[in-house]
Amino acid sequence: MEHRAREHWHHILIAGTITVAGLLLFKYIPMWIWGNDILFDASGHMSLAIFALYVMWFFIDQNKKWRIPYFFFATLILAIIAIHRIITNAHNDVGLLLGLALGMLAIGISHWKEVKKRLEF
């Protein structure tokens, strides 16, 4: 397998593992403690959508003309999921933000070397 493809799979595996672990910690354990009807647990729909969009990014990234339209598409998808989860009273803003933070954290950790180079204090 080519080095670049192996690196992509490594990033996907790390992000997926962190997403699953985060959902266990911030969704299923709070649901187990407070019951299934809580609204502040991390949104699995949001976290898994971010993970799926992240995996799709590896294909979109190959064509520079697709990048900006893809960001609009991804934002639209996440906005629709967020609005739907609030309208159906499945989550509140805290649950959606936890799902968003979990997805972003998973991607950030999977690319920690690049992130660390850009963060300065």
Give the low-pLDDT segments.
none
Fraction of residues in β-strands: under 5%
Number of helices: 5
Order of helices and strands: HHHHH
Q: Tally the structural domains.
A: 1
Number of strands: 0
Give the SSE map.
Layout: H1 3-34, H2 44-60, H3 67-87, H4 93-110, H5 112-118
Protein name: Phosphatidic acid phosphatase type 2/haloperoxidase domain-containing protein
Pfam family, one: PAP2
Domain Phosphatidic acid phosphatase type 2/haloperoxidase: 42-112
Question: Would you give an account of this structure?
Answer:
It contains five helices and no strands. It is globular and about 45 Å long. It starts with a helix and ends with a helix. The mean pLDDT is 91. The chain is mostly helical and 121 residues long. The longest helix is centred in the first third of the chain and has 32 residues, at 3-34. The chain has one domain. Helix content is 79%, strand content 0%. Keywords: Membrane, Transmembrane, Transmembrane helix. Residues 42-112 form the Phosphatidic acid phosphatase type 2/haloperoxidase domain. InterPro entries: PAP2/HPO. This is Phosphatidic acid phosphatase type 2/haloperoxidase domain-containing protein. The chain crosses the membrane at residues 12-30, 42-60, 67-88, 94-112.
